[in-house]
Amino acid sequence: MKLSYMGLFVALMTTVVFALAGCGGSQVAPTGGTITSEASAARGKSGMLPGTSGEALIYLSAHNRSNVSAVYVLSYTTGKVVGELTGVRDPRGLCVDKSGNVWVVDYGESAVDEYAHGGTSQIASLSVPGTTPYGCAVDPATGNLAVTYGVGSGSGNIAVYPNAQGTPVTYSGGPSFYYCTYDNASNLLISGNSFLHTSSLYELTSGSSAVTEVSIDKHVRFRSVIQTIQWDGKALAFGGSRVAHKDHTIYQLTISGNDAKRSGTTQLLNSGASGGGSQFWVQGNSVVQGAGAHIGVWDYPGGGSPTKRFTMPVGETSDIGIAISEPPSSK
What we know:
8-stranded mixed β-sheet; 45% strand; 1% helix; mainly beta; Neuraminidase
């Protein structure tokens, strides 16, 4: 992939401050406003504005009306669109390792691609042993990379690449798997299909050879069939679309054995979402989520109305993956 700055677009937004905890230091985040771009002309070229590798970055899977896909890169401190990655055919879920490298699941190519923080060329690409991969997670303790695949096949599948390289170990169980996350003990938690307003959750315990189902608190209910999950450092953040299809609810689940009990609730009001499935990203005391033509920032776990909200360019949607990458120097 060639590095090009000709296809870059710059979006200017005013700056406001909110806490970025958990990864060290207080930083600022993008304000409300509209992201303008020259994305239509830039398709097919990847690039990054100089000087961005030293700051926190938001990576966002995006699709336009012509069904052309790319990954936008936004500055987390200024709100500017600072780059674009176009080497992925159909980007879905995103995840980040402890060095700040970003993994992008390519649904169309049955692969998962790695980019250095602020980089524009793939530094690694791993083939997924099946079709339609969707979500990924990196275990900060072991470096293992997990990728869900086989979405829509009726069977949940996951590939675990030791130290994020080589041939994966594969596991199956339950319905289709979507998103996944590692907890503090290197246990892999996986969200599955949900039916009749109930939700499904699975776990691959560290050292185990089998995926087991986790029983979820009966008060955790959604209409959406896809739930995003992320370990927030203390509990499992588990969320999807509410019945109203306007607001999102993220539940905090405490897992003991094969039971997941609700320990908290975060309502993301006025998210502007048309349905579930959009990945959220918990970053310290904030949570960021794309929803169609909008991107919002909410207090976490407080929730409520968004503290910041901005709009994608006309024709662009942010309806699948999102992740925040910190520069290696900040870790």
